[in-house]
Write a structure and sequence with these properties.
By secondary structure, this protein is an alpha/beta fold. It is about 25% helix and about 25% strand. It has three domains: about 5-190, HUPs (Rossmann fold, 3-Layer(aba) Sandwich), CATH 3.40.50.620; about 220-275, Adenine nucleotide alpha hydrolases-like domains (SH3 type barrels, Roll); about 285-360, Translation factors (Elongation Factor Tu (Ef-tu), domain 3, Beta Barrel), CATH 2.40.30.10. Helix 1 packs parallel to helix 2 (about 55-65).
């Protein structure tokens, strides 16, 4: 690439990435827009996803044209399918509930994309994520911080980023709220200013990820027993792909529990069994977290007080973290938490600072 750029901007065609590019241009940086083409499940004529459909690519291109910057498209379909999508399938096949965005960010958007752009001589990559960065003057490490907009806070999705990835990243929206971002988009005349946000699994049509799972792993649709906490068979489930921890609906009639609200407490792929219990059985105070990525520490202290998020949509809750000899972390919350779900991420915070996080492990039994 002949031209020298200060940064590239990962652009999906949405308002956030378009405004990220606009802000960098406004600050006088020489930038280029980059859109990743990702794999998408072709189901009943739905052959393009929301993130990188032809319209999304054209929207990103129009934004770049309006801002007076170049735009390119990079194909990462194979890498996305082999990492994000296959991980999603395997996790569900193991009775886990994964978060594909966490995997995509670390491996594709801040991994593969950064690698390809570095090969082109571009060292910095900006995205439209709501997060902030800062340097730790004591350790020299790059810190990931929560943004000004707590509602749009995306640090939960970014906790797996390495120091190298954080050092080469720019988050222009960290000090802005979503309403302010939309106002900036209107000021620049961006056609994405009022476009709604995408919140579904991005590689299947909206609401159809379970259908996709069944097409890949038909046995996930095999019926099996529903048992209560005493091991008694009380019903029949419609396939493991249909359930997640804490779920109440789609359980059907449960013998001996007519008129009572029952919830999924455990998923056991080895026996194709769903375990159910009353609402109080879905609460727990402890969990084990593995596959850790630490942002603040090269080596974490043995005991840490932190606030912990167990899913993207919940607030952080105070807990004590104990680092085990095997590198896992035992988390004990101050108060019971609802529906701690194996396969989801647990992310650790101290104030605005993201300490790190990992994957919630299944309980024994």
């Amino acid at each position: 690439m002949e031209r020298q750029f200060d940064a590239a901007v990962a652009m999906s065609g949405g308002v956030d990435s378009s405004v990220a590019a606009a802000l960098l241009v406004e600050h006088g940086l020489k930038v280029i827009g980059v859109t990743l083409k990702l794999w998408y499940a072709q189901m009943d004529g739905c052959d393009d996803n929301l993130c990188c459909s032809v319209e999304a690519v054209e929207s990103a291109r129009r934004a770049c044209r309006l801002l007076g910057i170049d735009h390119i498209v990079l194909n990462a379909e194979r890498e996305f399918r082999e990492t994000v999508v296959d991980n999603f399938i395997e996790a569900y096949s193991s009775g886990l509930t994964p978060n594909p965005c966490v995997v995509c960010n670390s491996i594709i958007k801040f991994g593969e994309l950064h690698r390809r752009l570095a090969a082109l001589g571009i060292k910095k990559v900006a995205t439209g994520h709501y997060a902030r960065l800062a340097g730790d003057p004591l350790t020299g490490r790059t810190l990931l911080l929560r943004p000004a907009d707590r509602i749009k806070d995306q640090t939960y999705m970014l906790y797996r980023l390495t120091q190298r990835q954080l050092e080469s990243s720019i988050f222009p929206l960290g000090d802005w709220t979503k309403p302010q971002v939309r106002a900036i988009a209107r000021r620049f005349g961006l056609d994405s200013a009022d476009r709604p946000d995408s919140q579904e699994v991005c590689f299947t049509p909206p609401g159809r990820y379970r259908e996709f799972l069944l097409s890949e792993r038909p046995w996930l649709g095999k019926k099996g027993p529903i048992v209560d906490l005493h091991g008694r068979t009380v019903g029949e489930h419609q396939g493991l792909a249909m359930y997640t921890i804490g779920q109440r609906h789609s359980l059907g009639r449960l013998l001996g529990y007519e008129g009572q609200a029952m919830y999924v407490v455990a998923i056991r792929p080895a026996t194709n069994t769903i375990v159910v219990g009353p609402r109080e059985a879905v609460y727990s105070k402890e969990m084990v977290v593995a596959d850790l990525n630490w942002i603040c520490y090269s080596e974490p202290p043995a005991i840490i007080r932190a606030d912990v998020k167990v899913r993207y949509t919940t607030d952080p809750a105070p807990a004590t973290l104990t680092v085990q000899d095997d590198g896992t972390v035992r988390v004990v919350f101050d108060q019971d938490q609802l529906a701690i779900t194996p396969g989801q991420s647990a992310v650790f915070y101290q104030g605005d600072i993201v300490l790190g996080g990992g994957i919630i492990q299944p309980t024994q039994g």
